[in-house]
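go over this:
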Amino acid sequence: MARSSNSTQTLSPGNIVSASLRLYGANWRNYLSVALTAILWGALPFISLLVIIALTAATPFAGILFLPWIALLFYCIAQAGMQSAVISRLAYGEFIEKPESVATARQAVKPKLWKFLSMALLLFLIYIGINILTTLLQLIPIVGLFASIAASLWFQARLFMPEVFLGVEETTDALTAIKRTWQLSKDSVLPIILTILVATLVSIPFFLVAFVPMIVGAIPLVGQSFANLSPDEATAVIQPFLIALAISMLLFFVVSIFTVPFWQIIKSLVYVDLRSRREGLGLELSDRNPNA
């Protein structure tokens, strides 16, 4: 990847995905280490919630742990968002030929930790509204489902990369990051949608593999009646499924570690491409190694 002040080359969805894969391959160690941190922060609230539920079943007093759990949830959301933005910042540095180390990128993004929480909460509220809208669209006869899908994709494109703005632009806050991604994507909705679809086609086979154990484990339960089974017999029937479910969850965790950098790099390149066309940030693709 090379930068050129005179170039405003438009990147196709295929170019964006292939360039992202090349950069991923050249810097996978850095990206995976940050992705692992992001996924661990994201998983911590769910793991701790299971522990609290188990403790609550043993003693009612454990229920008071739900209050500190909410604080933990907010902190983990902020940390997971920040770590994801670190990956995008690292990729951005490579794309504009100003690479940073993981430590430098993390240090630059760290002061914005609580802005990532604010952004996540704002996006949560926005997507609640979007879900209400798409649900209402589905009530329209015949075309409702297609209109709902089209609206969902349109909003995904318009809100595709606010964490990149927050991670890269020094003075950006949560609301400004959302406004910036909305404004910058205004004239590029279709290319972004196509990029999302191409990237999804690349990612989805790995997640399908993760769900295979769960599906295989669920097959024996189809049509199974538990009414006439003793507790021991019911446990024996459902135990293989629970083991398969645990394996699928572990595989899903591993696949997420590998796919998070892929998506964050894509978002970073879309950001660079849009800025090159809307704001004059030059970008030119080359076939050489991004670190060459």
Q: What stands out?
A: The radius of gyration is 22 Å. The chain is about 75% helix and 0% strand.
